[in-house]
Write a structure and sequence with these properties.
Elements: H1 2-29, E1 41-45, E2 51-57, E3 68-77, E4 83-92, E5 98-107, E6 112-120, E7 127-134, E8 139-146, E9 155-161, E10 175-176, E11 181-188, E12 205-208, H2 218-229, E13 233-236, H3 242-245, H4 250-253, E14 262-267, E15 281-286, E16 295-300, E17 303-311, E18 314-319, H5 327-332, H6 335-345, H7 347-359, H8 362-372, H9 383-407, H10 414-432, E19 442-451, E20 455-465, E21 472-477, E22 481-485, E23 507-512, E24 515-520, E25 529-538, E26 545-552, E27 555-562, E28 568-575, E29 578-585, E30 590-592, E31 599-600, H11 606-614, H12 627-646, E32 654-660, E33 675-685, E34 687-689, E35 694-698, E36 705-708, E37 711-712, E38 717-718, E39 724-729, E40 734-742, E41 758-759, E42 762-767, E43 774-776, E44 783-785, E45 798-805, E46 815-816, E47 819-826
Parallel strand pairs: 5-23, 9-11, 9-12, 12-13, 13-18, 19-33, 26-34, 41-46
Antiparallel strand pairs: 1-8, 2-3, 3-6, 4-5, 4-7, 7-8, 10-11, 14-15, 16-17, 17-18, 19-20, 20-25, 21-24, 22-25, 23-24, 26-27, 27-30, 28-29, 28-32, 29-31, 32-33, 35-47, 36-39, 37-38, 38-46, 39-45, 40-44, 40-47, 42-43, 42-45
Helix pairs in contact: 8-12, 9-10, 11-12
Length: 827
Amino acid sequence: MKTSKQGTSKRRTIAATWAFTVLFVFLAISPIRAQETPASTEALFLPDSSIRMEVSYGYDDAAKGGRYIPVQVTLTGEKDRPFVGQLQVLSMESDYDIYQYNYPISVDAGATTQKIVDIPLGNRIDQLFVNLVDEAGNRVIHKRIKLNVSLEVPELFIGVLSDSPERLRYLNGIGVDYSMLRTRTIELNTENFPTDEVGLNLVDVLLVSDYKIRDLSERQSQVLVEWVRSGGVMILGTGARVDDTLGRFAPELLDQSYDSPTIRTIDMGQDYALEGPGSAELTISCADFSLSGANVIFSYDQLALLSSVAYSQGIIAAAAYDFADIGDFCLNNPSYMDTLLTNVLGEARINRLAEATYSGNSDQYWSVKSMINTGKVDRLPNLSLYVMEIMIYIILIGPGLYIFLKQRELQKFYRSGIVILSLLFTGIIYLMGSKTRFQDTFYTYARFLETSEESISESTYLNMQTPDNKPFEVSLDSSYTVKPITRSYYYEMTAIPKFKGDEAYKVAIDYQGEMTKIRAQNVTAFDPKYFQLEKIEDNKDHIGFTGEIEMQEGKIRGTITNSFTVPVEDAAVLLYDKMVLLGDMQPGETKSLDELEVLEYPLYHADRVAEKITGSDQYKEPDITDKNYMRALERTNLLIFYLNQSASSYTQNARVVGVCANADQNPVHIESSEVAGRTVVSSQINVYPAEEGIIYRSALMKKPTVVSGNYDAASNSLYGLDPLVLEYSLGNDVEIETLFFDKISEQFTNTGKASSLTTFMGSIYFYNHNTGNYDKMDENKNVYAGAELHSYLSPGNTITIKYLYGNVSEYNWDIILPVLNIVGRES
């Protein structure tokens, strides 16, 4: 019997060994690859699947962390029955939480369906997972998408919109600003151009050349304009097709019409004449036009070869030539496009794009966090009341209760009395703290409405928090795009966890037709979840600020009307370096600007400007127990965020901004009583000269050229104690009549927190082109007539000024210079 058992055991061992060997050989020759293969997609199809799925992403398989990635899914039914289910896309966010995006999907029997979804991608994340789930919740297909994301070299994505994109491929692989960025081109056309602004989120620069913009649909054109307004950079090539590329924007960008393009010989610059004089000359078709308020970057013989202008938060640059016509020149001189892109984008934007490769959207995360978490004063406990309650309790439970019982010879009930009093005061304290406790998920928001005659652009930042770790969900209008706002852990050297596609999601976003639902699970109590909700809709009710503004030698005249249906508080007019406080405005109320004080505010100091608008600069010290202070602080934080996002660049138009006093308290219609927030409203108002043919503008419209010294253009300030020499370009299109040196108003330097600002006090010198010397100016003189400037203006209408700070014994990092403004007549 023993021998029989040993034989059986031996046979089982041999059989197991053969089975393991066969399995090993099968796996060795199997064509299935492990997860880390370089293939861009991998999928598992169930044998009885009635559906097939193919996935592609981005434009030309381009992807970048912290951006939306267009994911195109093609589904094909293979059997004689339809398929109904759900498309799931799993993505890891910058904070390493798993987000799942769900879309309903249906495919007719034997048919093919395409669906394009835009998925936010976390920073330094290089893969997505796509699942197809049937009606019963069974996973039918599981696909991994390996993304072509550059993790080391920051990339500048250039969208190319052209009828001849092959002639613009020289733009690919160019190093920008000492190779801080590396360009990568994305070919766009009328068919694949997005119909939603989020579809252009992946693009940093859009170059339009040799293309008719009017070929875009009305919706695509609107997307293009809104993308630029919200911070995009568009470069237009013109040349022979100037009407096709520039014509769409001509009414907004040009002061006057332009002539038909002509064939001209232009010199691209001495730096590119590698083979001797004249070797950098090109004979090509050029268009001669002048952008209103433009910064001329390249010019030749009075022809602006390239100029740029601020367009709301974005930039529009226009070249006199077609970029397809200079392809051969750029191939031989790649540094030309490097210089062009560096000048158009600017140092600050380039640094921000490069930094985003490592930090993702962390800057936005911290900005939103500080803006939206001011808190509600009525949630704060009354400390004095609690102290009084505890003192009464101590007195009663100690000598009070004992004396009371002793007088009645009831000392034996002392212990029972202590228990009763303890329970009683516990209940009282619990009831006192009821208003400070959150019983359910609570929501705080900051809403920004930018209105124009045609449209309303809304951006709402929503914070969702739960007082426990229970799952929760919220439903939103489906017209919003929903983007998580998360921080990056890159600089904390936290290892990126493995992302296998089988992890439980932390947040799911369900797109359900007329409703978008956000669901969260496995969350930590009071852990904030931030989302950016955006939508654009027609301004059917014509809400907004309306009016006209006239400029006359530093004076601001005109009227502003509140055309919103609700009162607006803390309204103000902002015109680059000037501000007029309007105060509170009722619906339909009109205010005249003629007699209101004009304040000169410091550039790039959004906190100072916001404090002045809301009045929080009048508080010497923080006081969280003061409801008025907390109200001012809340609005100040909102306006700081708004000004940094929307009003940080030069524009000739004015901007009116205010805070709605009693706007819809639940603008995103969340079904909860725990919703709180504020709405900031703004509109752009056209500014006209008081006299036809007169130009009023800032000399900082174009960034001054630093001849020597240290200068920060964004804040118009010098730092350090070395003399600063700047060359200002006043424009070739104007004959200067008056030059103003506008210093910031005392209201920003002698009250509250603004006292830390240091304004320039010292000597100012003008460079005299006749003598070659610097002439010292009167330190108390702020206005110069045109006749006084003849010897100081160059033939190109530039003026060179030296600033010598007076208090050399005191080191100051940020010394604010006067803003130069000019009044002139069109030449």
